[in-house]
């Protein structure tokens, strides 16, 4: 059974369909305003939360604390640099089998999962090594 959605939730879903990457709630708010679909920032947050609980939207929190929202389509895996913020997607899923086992053993409905490794990208490692050589 489909949940009853508000117009605000439908507008957010439609906008997210056209955005191919994660977007912050504040940027989503600006995009809606730019498309003459203005709504309050609090409404954007409430709508995103409702869509997340429905399994339609997923959220990814970056190392700096910023939350990025996108449609729930596929599992997301990244290598994230703590120094420059570079985020490198990992295309293979190393935990897919574990997810299936947990769904079965715990009778848990999984909407999506994320896996993120934090460290330094190669460029930031070179910069750090260069500083240490002085």
From TrEMBL:
Q: Specify the superkingdom.
A: Bacteria
Q: What is this protein called?
A: Ferric uptake regulator, Fur family
Q: Which Pfam families match?
A: FUR
Q: Which GO terms describe its molecular function?
A: DNA-binding transcription factor activity; transcription cis-regulatory region binding; zinc ion binding
- Cofactor(s) the record lists: Mn(2+); Fe(2+); Zn(2+)
Look up keyword Transmembrane helix and say if it applies.
no
Task: Supply one GO BP term.
Answer: regulation of secondary metabolite biosynthetic process
Copy out the cofactor comment. Answer: Binds 1 Mn(2+) or Fe(2+) ion per subunit. Binds 1 zinc ion per subunit.
Keyword set for this entry? DNA-binding, Iron, Metal-binding, Repressor, Transcription, Transcription regulation, Zinc
**Origin species:** Nostoc azollae (strain 0708) (Anabaena azollae (strain 0708))
Query: What PANTHER family does the record tag this protein with?
Result: FERRIC UPTAKE REGULATION PROTEIN (PTHR33202:SF19), ZINC UPTAKE REGULATION PROTEIN (PTHR33202)
Binding positions for Zn(2+) per the UniProt entry = 81, 84, 121, 124
Positions with a binding annotation for Fe cation: 113
Which family is annotated? Belongs to the Fur family.
